[in-house]
Amino acid sequence: MKTVVIFYALGEQEMRKLYSFALDEEKCIFFVKVDGFFKEEDAKIYLSEFQTVVNSINPSIFTLIIDGRGQEQVPSDVVDDIIFVLKLYWMANFKTLIIISPTSPASRIQVENCVNKINFPGVFVDSVEEAYNLLNK
Length: 137
Hints:
Helix content is about 35%, strand content about 30%.
């Protein structure tokens, strides 16, 4: 069974999708796609909805894939939220953690700096294909 949850937040002129969740219970993959510019209040809602999904599964048998290619650099007051989210991913005890790095150079550096602060145990790749290829090894 596949479940998809999508959250929309108001953007400047129109609705914009900040993230989506896809839970593939058959393949034991929890796929999260994040896009755009997260403000502090967006991060809090994301954390709450992410935790709701995690609480509905046994993370130890799931691979978590975070597609962060569309994530934009966040303001300095939200950087601590990135660290908190990375710790949340880690502490949820997923079988495997795979992060698809942001394509924005500034955002990539921001995430790498956060990862280095906590010695994050996940694997970083540059594409969805790379992430799924890791699962097939």
